[in-house]
Amino acid sequence: MEQVKTVFFLTLLTVLFVFIGFSFGGANGALIAFLIAGGMNFYAYYYSDKQVLKHYNAVIIEDRKNYIYKIVEKLTYEAKLPMPKVYLIPDRVPNAFATGRNHQNAAVAVTQGLVDLLNEREIEGVIAHELSHIRHYDILIGTIAAVFAGAIAMIANFMQFSAMFGGNNRQGAHPIVMILMAIILPIAASIIQMTVSRSREFLADEGAARLTKDPGGLQSALSKLESYAKRGQINEATEETAHMFIINPFSGKDVKFGNLFRTHPTTEDRIARLEELKFELKN
Predict the structure, then answer these.
(1) Exposed, middle or buried: residue 100 (CB in 10 Å: 0-12, 13-18, 19+)?
(2) C-alpha–C-alpha distance, residues 153 and 159, integer Å
(3) What is the distance between the alpha carbons of residues 116 and 118, in angstroms, rounded to a whole number?
């Protein structure tokens, strides 16, 4: 179901992009904006993993006897994936994320707080969740969504500028209509992008439960991580990288408009989904 939702919303983003592009500048205007946004996201796709690991001062773990390394190695073997690089982030707030553009160029990073807080069963649940992201190419899917959302926002800015300063577009739209579209459509694109992100989190939770055959371990980990995230956030945390973490590092902030702009499903919903999987895995 979540896979179907992801395909649907990515298609909807594409349709929205084509619509706003043609409304303003026809095929040429849409193509130019898409190429610019695509170039920016191409760079981000190939180099953002190194940037984000550096941003959070992640230190690579190369000792195969290391506790976390051994857990990653064990689950990677069971998942039939290439061994990702393993990193430790020197931060007291427990959290984790995966990055990398494909199976061969992947990394899993955990904070020192996560290592200190969780037991082995819970850590396995978290690591399995991150490996599921890698397995399902979630970084690629997130990048595709970001390309279209970024292109839509870029064209919308052109539309607003053109409408305010008397420019014309091929379809002859009224300036007020153009301004309204420039405001509403990027918001719609952002909502769709967040919906895709939430769907991938549910899929990663399910993948972790099936890999470990222990949904309870991830349930317990999510509950603990959410509790700590509400009391403090990771140093240098940014909104741009929040979607990467297993728990949004800004969970302590109030989320307006319900779930529309959440990068993650609520932890309660995630735990409930995992509870349903318990019965399926027992049979």
Answers:
(1) buried
(2) 10
(3) 6
Tell me the two tokens of residue 254: 């109030």
Q: What is the pTM of this model?
A: 0.81
Q: Please give the full DSSP string across 197-252, using - where no structure is assigned.
A: HHHHHHHHHHHHHHHHT-HHHHHHHHHHHHHHHTT---TT--GGGGGGBSS-TTTT
pLDDT confidence band for 240 (50 / 70 / 90)? confident
Of 77-91, 188-202, 255-269, highest mean pLDDT: 77-91
Comparing CA positions, the residue from 93, 129, 107, 95 lying closest to residue 51 is 107
CB 107 within 8 A of CB 60: no
DSSP H helices in the chain: 2-55, 67-79, 112-117, 120-135, 138-164, 175-212, 215-229, 267-282
* pLDDT per position as a tens digit, 57-109: 999 999 999 999 999 999 999 999 999 999 999 999 999 999 988 899 999 99
Residues 6+ apart with CB under 8 A from 73: 64, 83
How many Å apart are CA 209 and CA 217, to the nearest integer?
8
Give the contacts of 68 (CB within 8 A, at least 6 positions apart). 61, 86, 88, 110, 115, 123, 127
Q: How far apart are CA 52 and CA 56, in angstroms?
A: 6
Local structure of 112: helix, strand or coil:
helix
Q: State the Cα–Cα distance between residues 61 and 85, nearest whole angstrom.
A: 8
**Catalytic: 280?**
no
| Structure tokens belonging to residue 41 | 């996201």
Q: Which residues touch 177 (CB under 8 Å, ≥6 apart)?
A: none
The catalytic residue among 2, 130, 201, 226 is 130
